[in-house]
Each structure stands twice: as C-alpha cells, then as structure tokens.
C-alpha cells in the first residue's frame, strides 16, 4: 500500500463558549454569533496529523466540509493544523443537511477520492445527533469504531481503544474503516502562524450539492424551539435540621 | 445524552482555568507564607495549584499581622472618638436590618468582622469593631454627617480587592461597605451610558451590558469581587485601557457624599460639559480620602463581535517593541490589548501550573495581542496582513492564532495566570510601575543583576528568590516587576528598595501605575510627586475633609 488516504469531515458550528439563544421566530437558534470548528473535528484532524507524525504511512489528509460559504474558514484551519487539501461543498440557505444526507455525501466523496480511512467527530455540538459516522460505515459496508480514545495502525490492521460506560473496550479491524473521535483521544494543536500562511496556498476545491446528484431532502421537521424553563433560585438553610424540614416540606422525604 | 454532558464538563474545566480563573475571582486566597516584611511591594499570596490544592495550611485571617504592628510608627490619632454603645445604637436605629450593621462592640463578632478588617493579600489588618452597609445615598449621607460631627474615623470599602492596603482600617475606623448599594439605575442603548450604584460588582455590570451588546470599558482579574465604585476610587487600569482609555475619560459623572453629609449630585450623562472645574476627577483615583462615591455614570462602548487573539515568541525586547509599533500601524483602531511576558515568567507559569505553553520552542519574550472590531472579515484581513508582515520580516520568531473561543481563553490564560502562579514557591514581591517603554525591560535586567550579585537568586532552597521577571501592559508602558520568592527575606528587600524607586524616579516614571498608593506606597510618594504637588493635594484634602475622618493614616 502506498499510504493511507484519510478523509476528515469538519463542521462549522456555534462556538463552544457561546451560549446559544432561541431566535425570535422560534424556528432555531440565533446564528449571528461566533462560529468555530466543531471541537470533536479538531480531534479528528489532530489524530490524522499525528498518525502521519508517528510515521504511519499517510499519503494524504483531506479536509471536507459541507456548509455555508464561511465553512471555508474551518477548512483553512484544518489545513493550518496539517490537512493537505480541502473540499468545500457550499450549501445555500435551505440546503441544510441532515446526518443521513451528510453520510450519503461522504460516501460519494470516499468513492471519488479513494479514501480508506474516515475520521469523524463522534458528534457535532450543534445538533448532537451522533449519527453520521455510523450511517456512513453502514452505507459503505465498512468496519467502524466509535468514540475512539486511542488509534493505532499497523499495515492494514487498526486497533482502536474506545470509551464505554465504566471502562474501555479495545477493537481490532481491517482497513478501510470509519473511526469517530472522543475527547480523550488527543489534545489538538494551535494553528501556528507559519502554518496558517502555508495553508493559504493549499488547494481548496469548491463544489455544490448538485455536483453529487444526491437526494438530500430533509426528512425531519423542526416544530418549535424554546428555551428551557428558567431555574428557580435556591434557598439557604442554616443547618442539617433546617435542611431536613425543608425537604419534608417539599415532599422529598 | 451522557456523552454530551461529559463533553461539556471537560471543556468547561478547560475554560475555567483560562481567562480570569474563576476561583481567582470569587475566593479569597489562602496564604502560605505569612507576610512579615516591611517593604512596600505588594504581594500575591500562595495560590492553589492546578489541582486546586494549596500546599501548607491556609493562614486564617487572625494570623495576619496587624498593620499597627507592621508599621509601629503609625499611632492612632487621639482626636478621633472611641466608639461607644450609643454610637452603635444610632447606626442600628438608622440602618435597621440585622445584616446592615456588624456590631463587634457589644458582642464578640470577630469572625464576622475579620473579612472586612483584613485585605485581599493578607498583608494588612485593622482593628475595626463596626461595619455598616448603607443601602442608599441618603443613608451614606446621614452616616458621614454623624461620623463627622462625632469625630469618628471611617474607611470606605468596595470589594476589598485593592492591592495597597487602602480598603481596610488601620485602627478602629468604621468600615462603610458599599455592597448593599448594588442597583443598576439606567442604561441608554443609544448613547451607551450606564448609571449604576457604586456597589455593583464589575462582572455583574459587564454581564448586564453584554446582554445589551455593550461592554464595561474596564476589565481586570478581580472582576468577580471588585465593585465599580472601588474601580473608580482607585482609577483601575486593567486589560482594556489601551483600547478604551482611562476612567478619567470614561466616567461622565459621579454621585458622591462628602464627610459633612453633602450629596454631590453630578451624575452627568454629557460627554461635553465645560463649565468650570471638573471636580469629579478628584474622586477618580482619590482612594476614598475625600468622600464616598455612591453612583457613577459611565460611557460604555459597543461590544465587539469579532475578537481575535494571537500569541508570539520573540527573540528580544527590541523585537517586542517593533511588534508593538507594527501592531499599531497595521491594526490601528481594532487593537485592543498588547501584553508582554518575558520568557522567564512564562517558564515559571508553565512549571507552576503544569500547563503546556502554546509554542513548542522557548523564546526570550512573548507577546499577546488582541483585536476587537465590528466586522469579522475586515478584522481577519487586517490581522492576516499584520501576521504575515511580522513573520516575514522576522520581527516575530513564531506564533499562534486562536481558532476558537476556548483557545482565546487559553492564550489569555498564559498572561492572566502569571501573577497567580508566580506565588507557587511561597510569595512574590510585586511592583507596578510606569516606565518609558524603551527602557521598560532594563529595570528587570538591572534588578536581576543586583539580586544575582548579592547571591540571592537561584534554583535551590538556599536562595530566597526564585527569579526576577517582568510582564505587563506593554501598550500602556506599564511594567509588573515581580520577584517570586521561597520566603520573604530582609536581604532581598534591602536590595529592592529604594533601588527600584530610585531607578524609576530617574526616568520620570511612576511608582504606582495602576494600583494606587494606599498605605503600601505612602512613604514613597515623593519619588513620583514633588513638594508642590503634595502641598496641593493636602490643600484639597483639608478643604473637603477638614476633620480628616476619611480613610486616615493612608497616603495623605
Ligand atoms: C486579582 C487582582 C487583579 C487586579 N488587577 C488589576 C489591574 O489589572 N489593574 C488595576 O488597576 N488594578 C488591579 N487590581 C487592583 C484594583 O485596584 C482593585 O481590584 C479594584 O479596582 C478595587 O475595587 P474594590 O471594589 O475591591 O475596592 P476596595 O479594594 O474595596 O477599595 C480600594 C480603595 O478605594 C476606596 N473605595 C472603595 N469603594 C469606594 C467608594 N465607593 N467610594 C470611595 N472610595 C472607595 C477604598 O477606601 C480603598 O482606598 C487587581 C486586584 C486583584 C485582587
């Protein structure tokens, strides 16, 4: 084998540190706020780059994003972190994709680019669907390992340690394969200035959904989005007796 | 579900330890090394390490030495009346509610009073027996009038985060704490003018403004505890000064009470008002010596939607100066912070915090720059041009650019975490100085040479000092000279003072750039102010506070 062709899908989401707010029309959240790369996708990119740094033969790391024009910034960040090139499928207003749509699209990309390893975030922090990786593996008929906290590749054999409730599980599979990343996998690097500059010169291909000729029509309908009820203020009790009588009053005891 | 919680929890942990560490804002630190020295240097007591534990037993407030013992030359002025039960009853009658008066005269309330008697650094401690917490300007007026007539000395107190011992009593002065005056009075969306009580906590004010897409023109590490009245009384500088200017410009009006009870109502909402002496300026930075500020009106800028932070490594202080010059040229109006840290301070930060620095290799100097603007695309373009320029021309050796809010927090953490973590070895001698920018770092070198020659700095326990480091608000020519030590030591103090002050005086610098004078810098005021000036100040003090009841024993 001449080296891995790794595909890393990345998504532009509302920045983790921003508190999302429901929009006036209650159809979604206010998107006029700071956006950045989905934190789990940073882990994916980082892992791909580390595979290469660990001397696993890697032929190419391709960063891919489907989303609005600004998603290109996220791909540039991925390239500054070490991806070799990017593909941006520009989705206009009303062309938002659901996980199945993304999985179908990724399948096409995998086929077109002859990828043999796809590293995805286990979920994106905006929709929290946590489905794309699994659907993609299903559509491709590939092995999958979700929630990876450690990845090792030797030849075409992949060992993944994944986090499960109460412990870890070690899986072994053969390439090609889909891996989704979990928080403890690595610590993503900063984009350094020299690399940000180099990333500007790396190729970024622009495409549209039409280029892939897919049915990505949404199957879900958002009925209404509302804020969770505000938390009621607590009370301070003086001592244990006070707490017990308060709990009794509330019928909790 | 479980996974997304796990995710949130661990990322939140990261952000907590970054910008203005949360535990730093709310908690009083527990000091490990007891302050024994007599220097005017301010200290940063031992802080919890990255696991939140403090080595050594926390010093209880009662272990803090009384200021009157540290400064035996200070004598209680006998013109002041001793507090009696009759006085206390008068206050209780006026203020009513239990919580508004802490009475340590008729009963032992020392545990309740202690937090008001000792300061944030655990360096100063007074003997007050009474704390009052007025809820309105009228109450403040009645209290001061009564104290003035009865010759009862007072200390105005805000969040008690001041670093020069100005906010706590020396003897038995009554503490007038503003915490209960915490209402926001009004905010005008069009002009951006906020009117609020003096006791509003800075962070509360800023959060309120954030909802309205505005920003308080001041930010500092103690924002979770300090009050806007205290900020004005100390003319605090902080992290946004470079961009938004000093409180002398941003505060448009003040409501204050003079010792005789007169309410000075100057809550102007005018940007322009050239009608004679601008008396309110005397309260800004006056440190509570001529009256109590009860409310302020302040001009608040629009909050920037687009914030970027970059962190550089540079090979010399000269390069840092060049970078600053280029930043002003290329970034102009969007530059909102330019901070400098020497390599030594970053190294110690790394050792003490256990955190990884953003750059792989070590550099002699580091700078952090922040831009804030209204348009992400415009800002990014400017910033890209600037970054390309400083990289290509070799001004900057290496650097990183934050890609998201969490990284912004982490990069700021490398600057804001410095003062806290330098306390890791025991204590720190800290000087907050204004020095012409070209010579700013020379002082750090000169001081290090001095201590090295005296054999006081070194890697092992036998040397009291760990290192001599410098960092600060480079954009404001404000240097923080810090000497982290394993123990406070007379020999170190002798090398530092008056050397540092004389050095600063020779360059017409300021011995207290941001933190004020309080009691700590009282003996050294002559290094920055000449006799004529001191006389004028004294005249003003005598004019407004003829009985001298306001914050006595402090700098004036
Ligand atoms: C972690 C930390 C970081 C800091 N960073 C900075 C910084 O970057 N820049 C900077 O400039 N300072 C800084 N400081 C010091 C700064 O001066 C104070 O934190 C703050 O401005 C004081 O506000 P406060 O409400 O705590 O006032 P206090 O400490 O309670 O009082 C300070 C002085 O003001 C007087 N005073 C308080 N309230 C009133 C009032 N309503 N009317 C009249 N007088 C009053 C007091 O008598 C006292 O003399 C820092 C302090 C800490 C602990």
From TrEMBL, chain A:
Its cofactor is FAD; AMP. Keywords: Electron transport, Mitochondrion, Transport. GO terms for cellular component: mitochondrial matrix. InterPro entries: ET-Flavoprotein_bsu_CS, ETF_a/b_N, ETF_b, ETF_beta_N, Rossmann-like_a/b/a_fold. The keyword Kinase does not apply. Residues 25-216 form the Electron transfer flavoprotein alpha/beta-subunit N-terminal domain. Binds 1 FAD per dimer. Binds 1 AMP per subunit. Gene3D superfamilies: HUPs. GO terms for molecular function: electron transfer activity. Belongs to the ETF beta-subunit/FixA family. Heterodimer of an alpha and a beta subunit. The electron transfer flavoprotein serves as a specific electron acceptor for several dehydrogenases, including five acyl-CoA dehydrogenases, glutaryl-CoA and sarcosine dehydrogenase. It transfers the electrons to the main mitochondrial respiratory chain via ETF-ubiquinone oxidoreductase (ETF dehydrogenase). This is Probable electron transfer flavoprotein subunit beta. It comes from Lophiotrema nucula. The lineage of its organism: Eukaryota, Fungi, Dikarya, Ascomycota, Pezizomycotina.
UniProtKB/TrEMBL annotation, chain B:
Its EC number is 1.1.99.39. It holds the Pfam family FAD_binding_4. It is an enzyme of class 1 (oxidoreductase). Keywords: FAD, Flavoprotein, Metal-binding, Mitochondrion, Oxidoreductase, Transit peptide, Zinc. Residues 124-303 form the FAD-binding PCMH-type domain. Residues 28-59 are annotated as: Disordered. GO terms for cellular component: mitochondrion. Signal peptide: none annotated. It catalyses: (R)-malate + A = oxaloacetate + AH2; (R)-lactate + 2 Fe(III)-[cytochrome c] = 2 Fe(II)-[cytochrome c] + pyruvate + 2 H(+). The keyword Thylakoid does not apply. One of its GO terms (biological process) is malate metabolic process. Its cofactor is FAD. It is found in: Mitochondrion. GO terms for molecular function: (R)-2-hydroxyglutarate dehydrogenase activity; D-lactate dehydrogenase (cytochrome) activity; FAD binding; metal ion binding. Residues 33-45 have a biased composition (Polar residues). Catalyzes the oxidation of D-2-hydroxyglutarate (D-2-HG) to alpha-ketoglutarate. Also catalyzes the oxidation of other D-2-hydroxyacids, such as D-malate (D-MAL) and D-lactate (D-LAC). Exhibits high activities towards D-2-HG and D-MAL but a very weak activity towards D-LAC. Belongs to the FAD-binding oxidoreductase/transferase type 4 family. PANTHER family: D-2-HYDROXYGLUTARATE DEHYDROGENASE, MITOCHONDRIAL (PTHR43716). This is D-2-hydroxyglutarate dehydrogenase, mitochondrial. The lineage of its organism: Eukaryota, Fungi, Dikarya, Ascomycota, Pezizomycotina.
